[in-house]
Here is the input.
Amino acid sequence: MEQEAFKMTNEATLKIPAIHCESCVKTVTRTLEALPSVEVSQADLASKTVRLRFDDSVVKVDQIREALDEVGFSAED
Here is the structure.
């Protein structure tokens, strides 16, 4: 049975001030991509930002923020 593709209906760029190394970037990326329908398009150490796409009928921005908080990274708009 083929899995239905998610519609990436929203894009967001979040500032994550606590990112300070490549390990942080990997942790943030893994955390976000573990959420249903979330795809990280860019995580940037220099600007301390992450750009992502997600289906807001599957996951909400508040849930994305909560997931980041759980691994020690607070997100700002």
Observations:
- The two ends are 38 Å apart (CA to CA).
- The helical segments are 22-33, 61-70.
- Residues 10-70 form a domain with the Alpha-Beta Plaits fold (CATH 3.30.70.100).
- Strands lie at 10-15, 39-44, 49-54.
